Amino acid sequence: MNKEKVIFSFFMILALTLNFGFYIGEVDNPDHHNVYELFAVIVVNLIATILKFGDRSQMGAMLLATSLVAVVQLITASFVWAYVIHIQGTGLTPTAMATIVALSGGAMLANIISVVLLVIETATLRH
Amino acid sequence: MPVVTSLILRQMRMPFIVLIMGYSITIIGMTLTPGVDEQGNIWHMSIFDAFYFVSFTATTIGFGEIPYPLSPAQRMWALVTIYVTVISWFYALGKILSLFQDPTFKQELVKNTFHKNLRNIHEPFILICGFGETGNALARTLTERRIRAVIIEQDNEKIRTLAIQQYPVFVPGMKGDARNPEHLLQAGLQNKHCSGVIAVTASDETNLKIAITSKLLNQQIPVVCRSELKDFEENMFSFGTNYVINPFETFASTFGMALHSPSLHLLYDWLTGVPDTDLSNPVYAHEGHWVICGFGRFGSGLFEHLRQYNIQVTIIDPSEELRNEFLSKSENKGCDFILGTGYDAHTLQVAGIDNAVGIVSGTDNDSNNLSIIMTACELNSKLFVVARQNKKDNERLFLATKANLIMQPSDIIARKIRTLLTTPLMLDFLSKATNQDQEWANIAISRLSGVIGNSRPNTWTVTVNKNETKALHEVLKYGRTIRIGNILQNSLSREVKLNAVPLMLKREHKIILMPTDDVAIKLGDEILICGTEDSKNNMNWTLNDIHSINYIMTYEDIPDSYIMRKLHSYLKRNERRKTPRKQLLYKNKHNN
User: Fold this and answer.
1) CA angle at residue B56 from B54 to B57, to 5 degrees?
2) Which of B131, B124, B252, B145 is nearest to B200 (CA)?
3) What is the pTM of this model?
4) A39 → closest Cβ in B6, B10, B47
5) Span A95-124, mean pLDDT?
6) B457-552: which CATH topology?
7) Gap from B27 CA to chain A (nearest CA, Å)
8) What is the enclosing helix (H) or strand (E) of B583?
9) Do A51 and B46 touch (CB under 8 A)?
């Protein structure tokens, strides 16, 4: 058992599950999407990205890329959130919420790819 | 991804994770802790506010308690925030700093810079293995001729001195063991621009290994090796090393030249020395009795040359073994071998220093050599002194002894390789010249000194082909006759002759020494010319510029642009029409 792999897989899958949790629900209904959940997704995704820093293998590079995509999407989502509340002051209108959820949906897709890659890597390893 | 970046990122994983954890915990805590606003209502920081607060607190900027003064509960959490995040930052910064101090990392950084420099070379370069005195001298010569050089050297101290050398062109250097093929490859052995390898490390064994590696991994490029021992020399030649240079042998043959023909030796010294340095004076060795102190590689090499001219020689050496071996050889009859060191007056007197004409101080210890010279000169001030200088640092001391010939291995090797790399034709010339008599050399010397002034001349090769001599090639292709004398004319005023002397003309396998002005140049000729730097530049105009060559050949000036050319030919046609038929025929005849 490789400890590094366990830790990385843990964070990767946690990122995906949290992301899913945030994404699920009516797309424009603020009640269905918790801000803390978004916060947690960002933190976990950041950690998963950093864990791939300096990995010189092909798979490592791919995983770093997908995680970076997810992080970029999620940070944009959080930025939109902060913008509509603190700068624009309009609050979480259905449009704003839909934008945020859509961005997190994109991030989830990237996270799904990460997990698929992870599964492929593990599958090829175990033969 | 370069190794350096990956090293940094790998090392930074933990600090980053600690930072993110610290931030996220404190941010969440901040949003959960209740605060009180101005009206006394309970309020909670949003994630945005909390992130802002934690960010300026963590970086010790400290904007204060915003937007409202914090409640006691918030202050308590702010304390936690300060300690957790500030310490995380210290940890991260400390880690980065320690990474930059790490020797492995530093080494990797230096390597990275070297590879970047190597990648930026887009022209042929020469790989010099060993950055000692010879390597340094070679790098200087090459860069002065605008040839790029790359250096690999094992010694950290030496490679560091590379940074403070002022070469005309930047020379990248790598710390590495040239015996290791991996290191040679990193230094660019298989680089497509690598055009030669020079192995001039102090050890013959290393040089041998470099030659083998280069010949196996990159067969096309020439390899030049320094070797001081016969065995290694033969070994190097056995697998096709292009040139092996033995400083002792080279010096011995130069010494032979000085004995046999001082003018020839002078010519050799002028032509192979560093251009634009002061000219040396001829050395005259007299016939008579010679004393050789130290019968190692150096002494025995010179001994052979002295014996070729049947000169009486006495040898002084402390080794009994060498003495027995020496005396057992029948051809050495008539020569004395005295056991001793040579730096005491008594031994020298026994060897007959009082009546000798020359002394060779050839031990491998500079102090002993100096001592021998001083003692001997005290006993007999008219001696011709040949000194072996082992260390470059002692140059001043040897010059102060006023020895007639000083052998300095690194200088000899640098000189030979320089000639090899810059004017390979010179070696042909010198080997042909050695067979000429003293009178020929005298004439050559007087011709040279007539044009070059007081400093050593530049030598260059003119190869008649499309790339190197565009104009000359063009003109010859049209069947015009160009003679050596023509290219020696000043391209600015053709009545003036350039300060240059043609040394040799090579046509396929035929060699003409000192070709006269009326020798016609043919396509594919190689001409070795020596002269001043100005003449070289001036000659380049003649060789490469069609107007200059036309001017020299007294052909008329043909305009370059389309309109002027048309106008010119139109005017010319008119002129022809005006000229009576008879006169035209006469004119043509004379032109041809």
Assistant:
1) 60
2) B131
3) 0.67
4) B47
5) 92
6) Alpha-Beta Plaits (3.30.70)
7) 10
8) helix B581-591
9) no
CB B353 within 8 A of CB B347: no
- Any idea what DSSP says for residue B173? E
Q: What is the pLDDT of residue B30?
A: 93
Facing residues of B387 across strands?
B361, B406
Q: What is the pLDDT of residue B579?
A: 57
Which of B41, B47, B55, B42 is CA-nearest to residue B29? B47
Q: What is the pLDDT of residues B160-214, one digit of tens each?
A: 888 888 888 889 988 888 889 999 898 888 888 988 899 988 888 899 999 999 9
| Class of CATH domain B3-101 | mainly alpha
Long-range contact pairs involving B472-477 (C-beta distance under 8 Å, separation at least 24): B472/B521, B472/B542, B472/B543, B472/B544, B472/B549, B473/B523, B474/B546, B475/B546, B475/B549, B475/B550, B475/B553, B476/B521, B476/B522, B476/B523, B477/B523
Give every CB contact of residue B390 below 8 A, 6+ residues apart in sequence.
Answer: B364, B365, B366, B369, B409
Q: Which residues touch B389 (CB under 8 Å, ≥6 apart)? A: B366, B369, B395, B398, B406, B407, B408
Which DSSP letter does residue B113 get?
H
Instruction: For residue A81, list chain B residues with Cβ-Cβ distance below 8 A.
Output: 48
Nearest to B503 by CA among B475, B484, B480: B484
pLDDT value at position B592? Answer: 45
The one-character DSSP state at B505 is E
Task: Look up residue B112 and give its two tokens.
Answer: 């990275």
Query: What percent of chain B lies above the pLDDT cut of 70?
Result: 95
Out of B9, B46, B48, name the one closest to residue A54 (CB): B9
Q: For residue B534, what pLDDT is reported?
A: 85
What is the DSSP secondary-structure string of B449-470?
Answer: HHHHTTBPPEEEEEE-STTT-H
Cα–Cα distances (Å) from B187 to B114, B146, B177, in that order, read 8, 20, 10
Higher pLDDT, B286 or B92: B92
Cβ neighbours of residue B231 closer than 8 Å, sequence gap 6 or more: none
CATH code at B119-245: 3.40.50.720
Band (A40; pLDDT cuts 50, 70, 90): very high
> Which residues make beta-bridge pairs with B405?
B386
- Run of H or E residues at B125: strand B125-129
Of residues B145, B151, B134, B144, the one with CA closest to residue B166 = B144
Q: Taking the domains of chain B in order of start, what are their residue ranges?
A: 3-101, 119-245, 252-422, 457-552, 562-591
The per-residue pLDDT for A126 is 57
One fold for B119-245 and B252-422: yes
In one-letter notation, the amino acid at residue B224 is V
Domain B252-422 belongs to what topology?
Answer: Rossmann fold (3.40.50)
Verify whether the Cβ–Cβ distance B20 to A43 is below 8 Å. yes
DSSP β-bridge partners for residue B268: none
Q: State the smallest CA–CA distance between residue A123 and chain B in angstroms.
A: 25
Burial B435-472 (b: 16+ CB within 10 A, else e): ebeeebbbebbeebeebbeebbbbbbbbebeeeebebb
Q: What span, in angstroms and rounded, lies between the C-alpha atoms of B403 and B396?
A: 11
> Rounded to a whole number, what is the distance in Å from the CA of B6 to chain A's nearest CA?
4
Q: Which amino acid is at B271?
A: L
